[in-house]
Write a structure and sequence with these properties.
The complex is a heterodimer of chains A (46) and B (467). Chain A has one domain. Chain A is built from two helices and no strands. With 467 residues, chain B is an alpha/beta fold. Chain B has a single domain, classed as Amidase signature (AS) domain (Amidase signature (AS) enzymes), CATH 3.90.1300. In chain B, 41% of the residues lie in helices and 15% in strands. In chain B, strands 1-3-2-6-8-7-12-13-11-9-10 form an eleven-stranded mixed beta sheet, sandwiched between helices. In chain B, helix 2 runs antiparallel to helix 3, helix 5 packs parallel to helix 6 and helix 7 runs antiparallel to helix 16. The relative contact order of chain B is 0.13. The chains are: A mainly alpha (46), B alpha/beta (467). At the A-B interface, helix 1 and helix 2 of A face helix 9, helix 11, helix 12 and helix 14 of B.
């Protein structure tokens, strides 16, 4: 496999993985909920 | 002196047993003697270090102590912007990164009295887990010449293990603190996302970058973290959460602590010596009173993919000018990794960011509802030969890189604190290690477990034969 083919294969694999996993994402799911998850977990522990 | 911990040197300086100038000169002499073959430094600032040490010595003599690191020589990965010193980020361009202000973490260490020895070698643009660098020389593993030091903070790992500096800073976007710490037999901590300001540090991926201490003991890592952690107005992602005294409860022991051990993914395909070393470390934790439970980890490969997409896209954005204007200056394997970032659709990048939030909540719910920490392997095998990182077709090198970092990357996506602790040596004399992962902002528990293990096992008392 040459460099170009590897790139295309990796790209296709990543895209497919994301597409599968994101299929059932709730509309309300947004990136900033990541920070909120960390902060909320820390608050619960305290 | 160079065998001392940061804590021990700091105490000795306070008692007048050794001066900041003497400590600095010992490090400089050792660097002079050994770094020609180790290649841990990109920029050695002997003049600046001597000047700072003299000032600190005068202040100490006058009874003015800056802080817990008064006169302690440290060194920093060459992507931390420090006024007066070039920041190459491992590239061919000596002043590749210039920030409008000094790296906050370095400034905080200096304010506590640290002496800056210089800037440390690293993988070009921090893109790669082995620590090889064709521009500045491949960093050698202090335990065995011809083997990688791990990356991307390879100079940090080698410098601390070889006693060229008492401690160092590294950065971790997919494992770049924990991997070289594991390869070099030292301690490396990736704190929680937001715990330590990234201001003044070359970004690779804003969403996954973390700065952390690399030291010879867990106590020293706790000491440095206390100084560098906390809110910084220059980094909007830094958390306002109060910084605890990490040394305060570090000796409390781990009786009754619940430790989850992954039953999937992390031990699959592991080198037998590494697996044996990590299992033995887990038995030691059990012997110290921890309650171990094997548990299935929710989809680590998915989090690896998510993290990979985010890092590639953000890395491409950060370095697009270099890639478009001077691609011939970039090593082929680094260029191949950058190129992928330009080809991922924006839609996939945004879906990855959304998935990260969901996966993080699921992980916290599934794992930390019934555990205090998770303990797992950190590298799949002991540090491989440098040829493993440098020889072969580019596509094969990229695959090798992905395999070597597969056990660390998911914790960048999750943003959780993760600590590398050495746990023995292979037959070939190369370090074995494992990682301890904790709840968000619970570095205190992670460090407590690491310290309890370190004291019981005693691997930190070993030193590489270099003289």
């Amino acid at each position: 496999m040459n460099e170009r083919k590897l790139l295309q294969a990796e790209l296709a694999n990543l895209a497919a993985a994301i597409e599968r996993a994101a299929a059932d994402l709730a509309l309300a799911e947004e990136p900033s909920r990541f920070i909120a998850a960390l902060e909320e977990a820390a608050e619960e522990r305290e | 002196m160079t065998d001392w911990t940061i804590e021990a040197l700091s105490a000795a300086i306070r008692r007048g047993r050794i001066s900041p100038v003497e400590a600095t000169e010992e490090c400089l002499a050792r660097i002079q003697r050994l770094d020609g073959r180790l290649r841990a430094f990109i920029t050695l600032d002997a003049e600046g270090a001597r000047k700072a040490a003299k000032e600190l010595e005068a202040e100490g003599t006058a009874g003015r102590w800056r802080g817990a690191l008064h006169g302690v020589p440290l060194a920093f990965k060459d992507l931390c912007h420090v006024r007066g010193l070039p920041t190459s980020c491992g590239t061919r361009t000596s002043e590749y990164f210039v920030a409008g202000h000094d790296c906050t973490a370095v400034s905080r260490l200096a304010a506590a009295g640290a002496v800056t020895l210089g800037k440390l070698n690293m993988t070009e643009l921090a893109m790669g887990p082995f620590g090889d660098n064709a521009h500045h020389g491949h960093v050698q593993n202090p335990w065995r010449a011809g083997h990688v030091a791990g990356g991307s903070s390879s100079g940090s790992g080698a410098a601390v293990a070889a006693r060229l500096a008492l401690g160092a800073l590294g950065t971790d976007t997919g494992g770049s603190v924990r991997l070289p710490a594991a390869c070099c037999g030292i301690v490396g901590l990736k704190p929680t996302y937001g715990r330590v300001s990234r201001a003044g540090v070359m970004p690779l991926s804003w969403s996954n970058d973390h700065i952390g201490p690399m030291t010879r003991t867990v106590r020293d890592a706790a000491l440095l973290l206390r100084i560098i952690a906390g809110r910084d107005a220059l980094d909007a992602t830094s958390s306002p959460r109060a910084v605890p005294d990490y040394l305060g409860g570090i000796d409390r022991g781990i009786a009754g602590l619940r430790v989850t051990v992954p039953e999937n993914f992390f031990f699959q395909g592991l080198d037998p010596e590494m697996a044996s070393g990590v299992r033995e470390a887990l038995r030691t934790l059990e012997g110290l009173g921890a309650r171990l439970e094997e548990r299935r980890i929710p989809d680590p490969q998915m989090m690896n993919d998510v993290c990979n997409i985010i890092s590639r896209c953000e890395g491409a954005a950060v370095h697009s000018r270099l890639y478009r204007e001077r691609p011939e200056e970039i090593q082929p394997v680094v260029r191949a990794r950058l190129e992928l970032g330009f080809r991922i659709p924006a839609h996939d990048y945004l879906q990855a960011l959304r998935l990260r939030a969901r996966l993080t909540r699921a992980f916290l719910r599934d794992i930390f509802a019934e555990a205090d920490v998770l303990a797992a392997p950190v590298i799949p095998e002991p540090a491989p030969p440098i040829s493993h990182a440098t020889e072969g077709p580019v596509d094969e090198l990229v695959l090798r890189q992905g395999r070597f970092a597969r056990l660390t990357r998911s914790f960048n996506g999750l943003g959780l604190p993760a600590l590398t602790v050495p746990c023995g040596f292979s037959q070939a004399g190369l370090p074995l290690a494992f990682q301890i992962v904790g709840r968000p902002f619970d570095e205190a528990t992670v460090l407590r477990v690491g310290h309890a293990y370190e004291e019981a096992a005693g691997w930190h008392r070993q030193r590489p034969r270099l003289d």
